[in-house]
């Protein structure tokens, strides 16, 4: 099993709601999975880019 991003319970509930919404709209299961997987990967990538910026800002604030 690979180690991937860790999502909170609230985030996972939102992803499940997205799956249910897509399925209710009639989106095929594989397409629904691909949409949600892409969104999760984009969120993970965004968070990993934000983290270094936050750390830099915190270090700068400590020097002041």
TrEMBL record:
Organism (species): Rhizobium herbae
According to the UniProt record, where is the region Disordered?
38-64
- Name this protein carries in UniProt: Uncharacterized protein
